[in-house]
Amino acid sequence: MLLFAVTAGAMVANLYYLQPLLAAVAAAFGREVTDAGYLVTFTQAGYGIGVLLIVPIGDVLDRRRLLSIMMAANAAALLAAAASPTFAMFCASSLLIGITACATMMVIPYVASIAPARTRGKSIAQAMTGLLLGILLARTVSGLIAQAAGWRVVFVSAAAAVAVLAVLLRRAMKTDPPRGRLRYRQLIASLAAVVRAHPELGRRALYGMLALASFSMLWTGLTFLLSAPPFGYSEAQIGLFGLVGALGAVSANAAGRLADRGHARLATTALAIVLLASWGLLALGAHSLAAVIGGVFLLDVGVQGLQVTHQSVIYSIAPEARSRVTAVFITSCFAGASLGSALASALYAAYGWAGLCVAGGLFPALLLAVFLAFTPRARKA
């Protein structure tokens, strides 16, 4: 479980190393910092594409071999980013990093498949804790490395970490037995059938999309706020805010235990309220560091807890199609994340921090409204 958790964290971290480096990368290529913000959108969109088009293959092919191939490709994409001579090549490398980082979502279904049913929520929560810590600590690690050795070294270091983990995982995982002969086109087409057969999957995918849009708006926009007056922070200082968010990872295990005990509905409602409240505090952050810290903590508690709750629910359905269930859910989530990153760049440029916070708060408000509207009709909420 420790190896799976570390792998999940290291792979998904590749999507987020860039966020505290936006100002430095923009300067290196002679671009505006808000232009560099769209690089995050490229990476997250690539991840969504990879999850949609590659992860479902895990339902019929050997996941051990597939994971090895994807991690090798991810290491190559990271090295390409480090060596990029132009902004266009860096954009292309960012897209490839996102696509190949979808290997993360081959690890989580594997954990769900080997865990006993009575403790599946706890096992998923352990793997998700690693994943969520990777998301948040990526910013701290990249900020510190960039401050000491330059932003390109961040991507070289990440490639080395992925290569080592690929070797360790290949030794640790067992080869999957044959699990079906669906053709690729049939496999992708069956995603819609899985959603129709399990309406709760579609609802949880929508809730995940709204939460990740809110999450991504904060972490992309936060760099714009903290690198400008009155803060004027460096890459390393901005990266340290990932430690604040990492404290919110404690909510992942608590949410997993609640889901195992049949309280997913209560957890979803409470965590959506926490997420909405976080934006009220963040709105005060333009001139208050304490408000920023408090808002970041609450937002990460809400988002991390919601993600574990959603996955505890969806992995209890369609055991034979867990990779496709993952593809539907995570594609929706990262469509939301891509939207959030793009909106953060556009809204901050047009309306500043206040406009970004208003839009950020609309996503959890909509999540809560839709969830409460569907709760009476849902058998498992």
Automatic annotation (TrEMBL):
Keyword list, A-Z: Membrane, Transmembrane, Transmembrane helix
Highest taxon of the lineage: Bacteria
PROSITE patterns for the chain: MFS (PS50850)
Keyword Transmembrane applies: yes
InterPro entries: MFS, MFS_dom, MFS_trans_sf
UniProt xrefs under SUPFAM superfamilies: MFS general substrate transporter (SSF103473)
Alphabetical list of Pfam families matching this protein: MFS_1
CDD domains (UniProt xref): MFS_NepI_like (cd17324)
Major facilitator superfamily (MFS) profile domain span: 1-379
TM ranges: 38-57, 69-88, 94-112, 124-145, 151-169, 205-226, 238-256, 263-282, 327-347, 353-374
Repeat as UniProt keyword: no
Protein name per Swiss-Prot or TrEMBL: MFS transporter
